[in-house]
Amino acid sequence: MKRRTLSRRQFLGSASVAAAGMASTRGSGSIGPHPALDAGAPGQGPNAAQVSAPTEPLDLHALKSFHIWDGHCHLVGFEGRTGAERMADALRFADRMGIERMCVFLGFPFNFHGTAEDMRFQNAQVLDAVNHSDGRAFGYVYLNPNHPEACLEEIYRYVRDGPMIGMKFELGEHLGADTGVMDGLMIHAAELHAVVMHHTWIKTTGNEEGESTPMELAKLARRHPSVTIFCGHTGGT
Predict the structure, then answer these.
(1) Residue 49 DSSP symbol
(2) What is the mean pLDDT of residues 89-100?
(3) What is the pLDDT of residues 207-222, one digit of tens each?
(4) pLDDT digits 0-9 by tens, 104-162
């Protein structure tokens, strides 16, 4: 059965519900929330001190009742020569882990400091994967701001005129996230209601060239409050 696709507005609405911790079941035959998860957050209610960890592991059927979406997936690490083949492998893992849908970005191999053609090649791989996901994968277009004109072409091709719902930025920007070029791209993200996922890191040995920190991304986000921006890794060391 063909799955219903979501618009970018609908995706944002669904993601907001998921972020709020709301879960629904698949129907009368489903297993409801685990008692420990249904007891409330720590510090809430008169018996908060008595809330303990689950005594039984959640089974796969219970996990699926929560409609889990993985918001940060790559095609690297999976088997296959094409995006479609790697998506088939990814879906096997998703089924095993109870993952209903996933957000996919970046092709293979990773090439963060490549040419505009490298960027186009990776986006084509992701589109191939999304088109063979039976509606279970959302695609983000990968953008390298070192090639601003090519970025606009990719935005038009994959977001404005295509099925992708977001934009992915990595560590290829030679000036980082807090730049004028990024401001221009955020304007397009706002106009198209596109989600933005931006890699951030804080390395104890020093970040790579163009690798942004959460603080730099926060400055960009502050200037574009209408854009939904995910701070990838939130600066994990």
Answers:
(1) G
(2) 94
(3) 888 899 999 999 999 9
(4) 999 999 888 889 999 999 999 999 999 999 999 999 999 999 999 999 999 999 999 99
Dump pLDDT digits (tens) for 60-88. 777 777 889 999 999 999 999 999 999 99
Beta strands across the sheet bearing 137-143: 68-73, 99-104, 137-143, 166-169, 195-199, 229-232
What is the distance between the alpha carbons of residues 94 and 3, in angstroms, rounded to a whole number? 16
Separation CA 53–CA 36 (nearest Å)? 6
Residue 142: strand pairing partners: 168
> Is 190 exposed, middle or buried, given 0-12, 13-18 or 19+ CB atoms closer than 10 A?
middle
pLDDT for 22 equals 36
Residue 187's CB is within 10 A of a number of other CB atoms, namely 13
Q: What is the DSSP letter of 68?
A: E
Enclosing H/E stretch for 63: helix 60-64
Q: Cα(5)–Cα(72) distance, rounded to whole angstroms?
A: 19
Token digits of residue 190: 């706002």
Residues near 1 by beta carbon (within 8 Å), at least 6 away in sequence: none
Q: Give the phi and the psi of residue 193 in degrees, each rounded to 5.
A: 55, 40
> Which domains, from first to last, does the chain contain?
30-62 (no CATH), 67-235 (3.20.20.140)
Q: Would you give the end-to-end CA distance of the chain in angstroms?
A: 43
pLDDT higher than threshold 50 for residue 230: yes
